[in-house]
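Work Package 3 (structural annotation) set out to generate three-dimensional models for the target panel prioritized at the project kickoff. During this period the team completed the workflow that converts sequence records into discrete structure tokens, so that structures can be stored uniformly alongside our sequence database. As a representative example, we reproduce one entry of 502 residues exactly as it appears in the project archive.
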Amino acid sequence: MGETAALLAEVFFETVTYWWVIIPTIILGLIVGGIPGFSAANTIIILMPLTLAMDVQTGIVFMVSLYCAARMGAGIPAILVNIPGTAGAAATPLDGYPMAKAGKGQQALSISFVASCLGGLLTTIIALATMPILARVGFYMHSVEMIVVMLFGISLIASIAAQDLLKGLIAGFFGLMIGAIGTDVVYATPRGTMGFLELYDGVPLIPALVGLFAVSEAFMIIEKKVIVSEDAEPKDPNWHDTIEGVKIAISRWWHIVWTSIIGLVIGVIPGAGASIASFVAYQQSRSYSKTPEKYGTGHPEGLIAPESANNGVTSGTLVPLLVLGIPGGATAAIMLVVMQFHGVGFGPSLFETNPKVGYGMFMAMAVSYVLMIFTILPLSRYMSHVTTVPTIYLAPMIISFTLVGAFVPREYMFDMYLALVFGVIGYVARKTGYHVAAILIGVILGPLLETYFLRSLKKSGGDITVLFSSNLGNVLWVGLVLSIVVPLWLDRRRKMREAPAE
């Protein structure tokens, strides 16, 4: 135990000496994360010749810092202009953007940054201490268990539908139908592709994301002078709002803790990802909140939940990579390639043969989150003024950047046109009272749910009862039912208590 503590201290102080790599990489990651279509994964690919030329430790620090910063950067445009930089930030605008429209953009950014940094730092420490246990989560989460996890996220559609049941459910099912476009996972038969080869792999996520949120939002804000509502007074940059946002986030420290742990556990499951974690965390946060009616109106807890969860995923994806040699996501897979080039072998023996590399990745993540707090918080004073830029300039910039972002992942002109189509769909949905978030949930989680569902049926020979054949799955089913029923019961109980007072 004493030797391990001494080694961890040594690795920590070594990592701190790489501040000259971490700070510029944080700035790069924030920029990359804020551009829809760009991510830490494709940025590391672009800069791979640079990472291959670095020594092992410098390469680790660079990749991990970029990964963390890009995850946080995706939330900045999500809050300010309703444009999630990645699918992992798709739940952030639900409460972040209403805060920005109310003139609280600076406060919302501060809440987001603190929740992201504390959530990421906490889960990094937990992952470091419990790696052998967390590594086994991936072995227990099979198709049946993943179906229930998906349903946790999809049940958020029902929460959104609570405001207008019919429109919410229509939007959700419409998203699920769009998610079904492409070749089916069993017989590879094209469904709803309308003859476009570009849709055979399914609807690409980034064009759908930027179209539904960014392009449609650009169409909406053209009708106004600025994003901020007319009754919200513009403020000069000041430290008060930044500090106020920090206080709000810290006062909800327990919320950061448990939602970030959701992200950590889901991040350990290979292929699950930040989008699932953020939707599940938001759904759970809203379900067990004493004020669920405030969600979607600019509620701090609705902003904290997805941001702490999607940053909790970052440390989770490293656990199966380091302990099992199985990458938990796209970025972790690229890290695997780079590290193998340097002769680093991942797996159970890593912490015996090369412990500094194993512990170094988590230490780089922890130091990055600490430095990010001091690097990015002062910038929130000025970032928030994006909302005061006249829309005559802002709308064309949003459309231009997002169309480029739609093009980047696959480099198809078709994806740019598809983003415009989704922009029109999103605009019509907003004007007629349908929630674009419900559509996006269906588009993201629908295909994943279908894949796991058909995989379960194939293994069981078509026996539907396989969904209840797992002990862990049954526990999750009970949790899902409780997360839906308990809030309804609490809401009814609260109304009964208020009735005599009226």
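The first helix runs from residue 2 to 16.
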